[in-house]
Amino acid sequence: MKTKKYAVINANSAEWTKRAFDALNGQCCLIVNKSDNGIYTRLRPNEKLLRLGGFQLGLNLENKHFSEQNAIYVDVKSEKCPDNVSIVMGHLRKAKPKSIVLVEATDQNTQKDIPAMCSALDYTLIAQLESESIFSFLIEK
To answer: Cβ(43)–Cβ(23) under 8 Å?
Structure first.
């Protein structure tokens, strides 16, 4: 099984406002870029974040504010719908509960098909990103 890195926010209650700490501590994010000082991440705000308001989709985090974890990596960049979604579903079925799966695709239909699949099968779409014609999805089973 292939793995790829994603980030988990480790908010510091002494440095972050209570609102930001409560909303973001423990959130999983896609890693967009990394430097010596930290990372730029991408997350999809959940209802809690949207209710609190004021949060952007992208966050710059210093090294002390995140940890990197391994996700199950599913590369369906060479696949078209419906095969790519079927492959992702197969990996999610085999994954243990609470597993994190990182999917990369090139078929534009995945932008609507993967979120629809997550909704229909009660998986959590944590983050979604398009970069250089690659669509990335971070999903929690």
So the answer is: no
Structure-token pair, residue 101: 């799966």
Euclidean distance between CA atoms 64 and 20, whole angstroms: 16
* 114 in Cβ contact with 122 (< 8 Å): no
CATH class of the domain defined by 70-140: alpha beta
Topology classification of domain 3-69? SH3 type barrels. (2.30.30)
* pTM for the structure as a whole: 0.80
- Report d(CA 120, CA 86) in Å as an integer: 14
Do 124 and 140 touch, CB atoms closer than 8 A? yes
Q: Where do the domains of the chain lie?
A: 3-69, 70-140
User: Residue 39 burial by CB count (10 A; 0-12/13-18/19+): exposed, middle or buried?
Assistant: buried
Peptide bond into 97 cis (omega under 30): no
pLDDT digits (tens, 9 = 90+) for 98-108: 999 999 999 99
